[in-house]
Write a structure and sequence with these properties.
By secondary structure, this protein is mainly α. Helix content is 53%, strand content 0%. It has 2 helices and no strands.
Length: 49
Amino acid sequence: MFIRRFRESNAEKVSKMIIRTERITNSKNYSEEAMNALEKRAKPSHHIY
């Protein structure tokens, strides 16, 4: 396994991974409206500091 620091070019893939993970793990506990709100926060720009 190769571990390296996050790069800005990874932001899109990381965002998609977070959205997918939240949908899989949280969809049973949250409404569709709440899931959509979480998804809006997971924009690629949110992961770049």
